[in-house]
Amino acid sequence: MPRHLLAVEHTKIRALREQAGLTPQELADRVGVTYRVVVYWEEGRYVPEARNVRRLADALGCATADLTGTPSGSETLVDLRYAAGLTAEEVATRLRATAVGRDLFVDAHKVRSLERGRQVSGWNWRKPGHTGRLVQQLATVYEVPVRMVMDAWMRTRPADEPPRLPERERHGPPASAVEGWEGLNERQRVYLGEILRDDQMTETEMWMRRQNQVRVPPAKQWRKLPFALDAPSEVVGHTRLQQRLRSAGVHDQGAGATLHSLERLGLIKVTKDRVEVPGVGEVDRTLVEITRRGRACARAGLGEPAESAPPAHLLSEWLWGVLLRVAAAGPEGLHESELTGKSLFYLAVGYRPKRQAHPSRGFIELRPRMAPGDTHVLEYRWHTTALGQQHIASYLHVYMEMYPAAASPAQ
Q: Positions of the region Disordered (predicted)?
């Protein structure tokens, strides 16, 4: 009998079938197999093939990980293939239709060797540039993000030099952004530019607060920038944005009209709230928030490079900082209460941003700290996984260049 790299827990098939309210025959009809095959699966006498694992999951309304018991954020290359419902032969056929598949002379045997962590014959398989192109094609074949294939590759083949993904092409500002800027009058340009500057300054302040482990409100709150207070300026003073516009010589009675014209163009959003001012009481406050379109328009007009996302397999500055915090804790780890929020859904084993979303990176995990004699669990602490440590070691030099203000694990 052929060796199966991915084990489907047969007891789960029956449990999930009953949970879905299906009889064995109904499940067989949905998957496209016989009643006897389903019975054999549930008894553990047969192991479903890759194609049938995907069909089983679809029929039962679950993820393939629910059948295999693979925690979210710990997928290997074979997990991705089974989740896609493809045999090694089918993957090889699809890859051979691409330039990199032909360069690597991909066949089913090489796909299986790749998944088993064995050496794959062929000189080009030792070249990170070629394997990086292969990672991109596997992401297309399996219909998952490139980062998932890269992580699965490094879990499956930790001794390999990491594949090197092709660099993204750099493009100038979108034509629509340039056209939007050119359609503004001088006064509107100054307003939009100063709002962008204030947004950037606020973003830097929030980043510094995170570095000092000070609570940061959600971005949907702090991106709403105070523009004006509905009270005499000699009493409440001027906001930072008003001060900027005063320095540019364009802060006057026409401010409201300019804001609303920018809002009509979809470049900013204008909202109101009420705040307590010492010695005055509650007053109305005008808030402005630059939109994605407005940010692109201002950057194009001011000659700033477009905001670029990190390469597909790397982390944002925020998530990189979280990973470094856990790594810096060393063998002791971080107490589970020290790490909360959305970062867990992108970094921790067993998490995913949303139920149907792609799983986390699996760079950190909770481990129990046992009492003397292993009688019970004292607490749980966050630690970096083997993949998390490998990711740091492989890409530290890249992150130091991308995010020079971030601390290194040794700091």
A: 158-180
Task: State the pLDDT at residue 219.
Answer: 80
Report, in this order, helix, strand and coil percent for the chain, each rounded to 5.
Answer: 55, 10, 35
Distance CA(123)–CA(282), nearest Å, equals 73
Residue 1: its pLDDT value, please? 31
122 versus 354: the higher-pLDDT residue is 122
Specify the 3-state DSSP secondary structure of 273: strand
Residue at token pair 């909202």: 271
Chain-centroid distance of CA 166 in Å reads 19
pLDDT at 4 exceeding the cut of 70: no
Query: Locate tokens 């930790």: which residue?
Result: 158
With b meaning 16 or more CB within 10 Å and e meaning fewer, what string describes 8-39? Answer: bebebbbebbeeeebebeebbebbebeeebbe
| For residue 361, pLDDT beyond 80 | yes
CATH number 2.60.120 is the correct assignment for the domain at 179-302? no
What angle separates helix 10-19 from helix 35-43, to the nearest 10 degrees? 120
Q: How far is CA 277 from CA 230, 231, 288, 337, 407, in A?
A: 11, 10, 19, 35, 38
The domain spans of the chain are 179-302, 317-402
| Mean pLDDT across 361-381 | 92
pLDDT tens-place string over residues 381-398: 999 999 999 999 999 988
Residue 348: DSSP 8-state? B
Closest of 84, 133, 79, 85 to residue 106, by C-alpha: 133
What distance in Å separates the CA atoms of residue 125 and residue 290, rounded to the nearest whole number?
Answer: 47
Reduced to 3 states (helix: H, G, I; strand: E, B; else coil), residue 319 is: helix
Q: Is the pTM of this model over 0.90?
A: no
Taking Cα atoms as reference points, which of 60, 87, 59, 83 lies closest to residue 70?
Answer: 83
